[in-house]
Every structure is written in structure tokens, then in C-alpha cells.
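Chapter review. Work through the record for Signal peptidase I before attempting the end-of-chapter questions.
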Amino acid sequence: MAFDLEWILVSATAISGVIWALYRLLVRNASEKPEPVLVEYARSFFPVLLAVLVLRSFVLEPFRIPSGSMLPTLEIGDFILVNKFAYGLRLPVAHTKILETGKPQRGDVVVFRFPNNPDIDYIKRLIGVPGDVVEWDNKNLRVNGVDLARVAVGQYNALDQNNGVHATFRLTEDLLGISHDILVVPNTGGSRGSITVPEGSYFMMGDNRDMSHDGRAWGLVPEANLVGKATYVWMHANFGGDGFKPSRIGNSID
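C-alpha cells for Signal peptidase I:
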């Protein structure tokens, strides 16, 4: 069974709250008696756990970037904050939406639960929204019949998970009015395909186009799998790689 911090946090909050509440309800003159150690711990931890649960479930959740699939936008070792209310408020663990707050937009950098294994969180850029037709041919991308314009930036040395360096080329891509940078590996082939995005689903790709396991390989992301919108880098630490980089702190994710 995968380690599930969300489930542990919900359970710990519920257990501490129940212990404290039962003691107050069932023990006469509870406020005048010394509390048992277990009740004292429950009373102390419950408000802290509840605050963390609410913040993490409905406001902001931190994530660490473990791979280079979103280079150059996100680097290995970036610690990011994800806006949990951007695409609707969801109950923790059950992930049932209880309030609609907004819809994902083309070009958003999105954290989602991997469709083939929902225990794993992925982060990619949203390329296709419902109704879009997305086509890819080697390194070229077309959305709704429009070839996406690209401007060369220059060479980029991409660091992978094993701290190996790959010579790539950096381009600025115009995703129907949304500008962002991508990487491609020169003189290599690529896949070819197309997909029409149905209602309730989204098509995602990594910015490191030739080194990303994304929708081109495994298809669409259901709306129910969305976790939130990546917003800021709050720290960067890749020990064994490029170390601590203060210059990454506070960078917005566009």
C-alpha cells in the first residue's frame, strides 16, 4: 500500500477530535479534573492537525519536482505551491468536488493524479481543453488546426534525475496566445498522433518534449483527477545535483 499522507492526516485529525469530544461529553466536570495524558495530547494536537488539513486540502499544498519532464519551467529539486481551490474544492481522500470555483485553462501547469495509478501525482502543462483537437508530429504541435509558432532561444543543458547533462535546445512556444518555453533534443525522432479532447477530460504534455512521459503515451486526464494549479516555487534543493539555488525562490510558474 502506498504511503498516503492525506489519509493519515485525515485519520489523525478525526481520532484526536473524537477523543477530546468524547471526554468532554462523557466525563462529568471534565473541565475541573486533570486530563488523562491521551486526552491532553488529543486536545493539543487537534486544532493544529485541523488547521493543516484545511490548508492542505482546500488552499495550498506543497510538492517537490522529482524529474526533468517540465524543464525549463520547473527544475529537479524545485519545491512548489499548488493552488487547491483553482479548479474546485474537493473533499480530502474521497476527492469529491463540493464547490465549483473555476475551470482549467489552456497553458496552465497542472498537478493531477496519474490516470493509470491515482496514488502517483504528475505535473504537466495543459495543452488541450474539452473540444480541442491536438495533433503532434515529431517535434511539431498543432491545436485546432493551428501550427504552434516557436522562436529559438538557444542551447540548454538539461539535468536529469541521475544528474546527467543532456544537450537540448530551448524554444519559446505560442500556445494560442499563451507563451512558454519548451525543450527539444536536436536530431532525434518523435511520435506522431492526434486526439480530440472530450468533455470532462484534458490533454497534458511536459515542457521537456522529448523527455516527458505524458498524454502522447497514456492519453487523457479525467477532470476528477485534477489536484490543482502550480503557482510558485518556494524553495529549490537538489542535493547531489545543483544543490540549493536561492535564485529559484519566489519564481512564478507560467
